[in-house]
């Protein structure tokens, strides 16, 4: 599943020619096990990094241009390094890379002309964070060995997505792409930006299932949810002046202040506060190897996202309900922003084949297309190859 360095170098040479041997960088995508739509509320998340990753091959170019080629898209974007601070977004894929370059220059790192070849195995827009994988691998390629703290790397990529791409994302995707360790999940405190490595029990297969749909709503709904959480905070501050984000509110406090919060922000806040509690419970369950509790928490997370946060969709609900009907499935829920993309499923290893067969047949029968499956083996974070 990982891409061979010789293949990347060959692709680079084929595209850019020349004699320079490119340096190679890799940054993984992720599956979030639990803690959905909590990162921008400064709460807890618990993702794993994937073997699926974005690879960037890079070599210096003498003409002061960044020449960015995505083999996935089949397009090149050229931009002079000189004017990078005044670059304007184009509203296409290249904004993720140009946004990162701009942040690097803004922070005072040296940014030089460079040819970049991008090759990603993370499906784009499927909720497995192809965007953060792209940002982090290109940031490493553009920094070209200039030392940077891992947290600064994650934060600069997040800023590129927030400020240049225009997506008000939390820190989860970039953080886990940088900090992940092989074989374990990462629990991130999105306020302190500290994290803990969380071991996962043996006898557990993690599968992402791609619904192969992405509803138009996803971008605008994400912004709406960010805003609605802000409205909940503003309402809660009339009762609890010390509250700065939904991270500061427990489910019991929210209950006690229910009359002060309008109906929709109340339900959004109920998701976020209970979800933060579920991340803590899931971490404990994972540490003691309690698969049953882990599965129940996943399902509770899904129901909360479905009914309170309203970011699921028919296809995701169908995949979750179909999964839960299969023997050997421990738990399932939507993962990522929602409105399509993937579900994450905890499955007993002996049941994986039956699980795939059952979901393929049911989904094909209902929607006339086949879901894609990705075995999620927790992999290491980003680095040079
Ligand atoms: P996700 O991060 O869940 O995959 P996003 O909507 O956040 O979904 O990011 C997907 C976008 O990232 C794509 O539409 C594309 O613009 C960009 N992208 C991701 N990977 C690549 C790639 N290899 N080449 C070019 N653009 C990419
Ligand atoms: Mg993304």
Which short descriptors sum up this protein?
single chain; 385 residues; alpha+beta; Ribosomal Protein S5, domain 2; Alpha-Beta Plaits; 2 domains; eight-stranded mixed sheet; four-stranded antiparallel sheet; 12 strands; 41% helix; globular; binds adenosine-5'-diphosphate; binds magnesium ion
Helix content: 40-55%
> Ligands bound here?
adenosine-5'-diphosphate, magnesium ion
The CATH architecture of the largest domain would be: 2-Layer Sandwich
Radius of gyration over C-alpha positions, nearest whole angstrom: 21 Å
- How large is the share of residues in beta strands? 15-25%
- The helix-strand sequence is HEEEEHEHHHEEEHHHHHEEHEE
Task: Please outline the major beta sheet.
Answer: 8 strands, mixed
Mean pLDDT: 96
The domain count comes to 2
Level-1 CATH class name of the largest domain: Alpha Beta
Which structural category do the helix and sheet elements fall into? Answer: alpha+beta
Total number of strands = 12
Q: Could you please say which CATH topology of the largest domain applies here?
A: Ribosomal Protein S5, domain 2
Shape: globular
